[in-house]
Amino acid sequence: MNKKLLQQAALDCLKQYEFVEATAPIASGQAAWLALAFSRLDERLALHWLKTAIQRQGNYSQPAAASHVSEFSPVYGWILGHLHQTSKNKPAFLQEIRPLYSEIIGLHRVIYANFDLSGDGLIATEGPGSVGLTSHYLHAPPLNGLEDPFFNAMLIWSNEHLIRIGGLLREDVQEIIEWNDLAIWSMNEKLWDENAGGYLPYDLNRESTTEEISINSFLPLAAGIPTQEQAEMMHETLVKKALSANAWTLNWLLYKGLLRYEMRETAVDLKRETLAAALSYPADTPEKAAVVLEWLCANR
Fold it and tell me: CA-to-CA distance for 123 and 202, rounded, in angstroms?
């Protein structure tokens, strides 16, 4: 595998985003990926793009904004946590991100207040999670609301990082802990399907899980949601499925989850197959560039 070729393609893709003044406006989802991509290259740019992603979400601190169809990406908390973990001067970086930390808490507060329709800590979206970290449409209330494992797993993972960072900042994190504990409990009570060996979307109208198992069913591994016993059942199901090596972003999230539960052999196989497929389609988007750099530069 030509790792240098993969890395150079990713770096070439990111060149147009190095000069922020000359960059054309981009969607919040892409800006979030740029934050992840630059985390290994330039802390200043990484933080700039995360700030940009949140600003592009709009003003969710106003109640009126939450009463209309809107877009929200649940990933800012764990991306902020990732930027802190990869920063060279963590104490200084921690103080720099304090305002951003507060903004993300505010976003989560509005989301839980307006879109936890069942009062069980799970957020209702318009439909199942889409590829990557793109924004999801939320209704108040959804006409056909689904409590989706992808969206809720990403939000829980973000909560986890916000709890950690809040502790370092000596902030009161009890509210976030309560959100997270309830959401994890509900994921395992409502969305977990033992027969399927994974998590399935819950249809609020039908009051039952729906659809067949997909890669989204395994992404709660990244957020540490399943017990070890559940994770092993998920692993048994996963190794029987044919995953697409071209689903770069979802495969990377699944890879992180497999490592979290010490399923290293399967994680390494997934990484190798995805990077091998990537040779035919070099990184040409912020999403792909971020994944390639994470896989090539990270220690694990």
Answer: 11
Collect all residues with Cβ–Cβ distance below 8 Å to 6 and sequence separation of at least 6.
275, 278, 279, 282, 283, 292, 296
The pTM score is 0.91
Determine the length of the chain: 300
Mind listing the pLDDT tens digit for each residue in 198-215? Answer: 999 999 988 899 878 889
What are the structure tokens assigned to 22, written together?
A: 């000359």
What are the beta bridge partners of residue 266? none
Domain of residue 84 covers: 3-297
Q: Summarize pLDDT for 76-103 with one digit per residue, the tens.
A: 999 999 999 999 999 999 999 999 999 9
| Structural domains in the chain (count) | 1
Residue 248 exposed, middle or buried by CB count within 10 Å (0-12, 13-18, 19+): buried
Over pLDDT 70: what percentage of the chain? 86
Q: Give the domain CATH number at 91.
A: 1.50.10.10
Ramachandran region of residue 224, left (φ > 0), alpha (ψ -120 to 50) or beta? left
Whether 178 and 150 have beta carbons less than 8 Å apart is answered as: no
Burial class from Cβ neighbours inside 10 Å (0-12, 13-18, 19+) for residue 15 reads exposed
Q: From residue 22, how far is each of 27, 71, 123 by CA, in Å? A: 16, 26, 37
Residue carrying the six token digits 């560039």:
289
CA distance 258 to 270: 10
Cis before residue 141, ω within 30 degrees of 0? yes
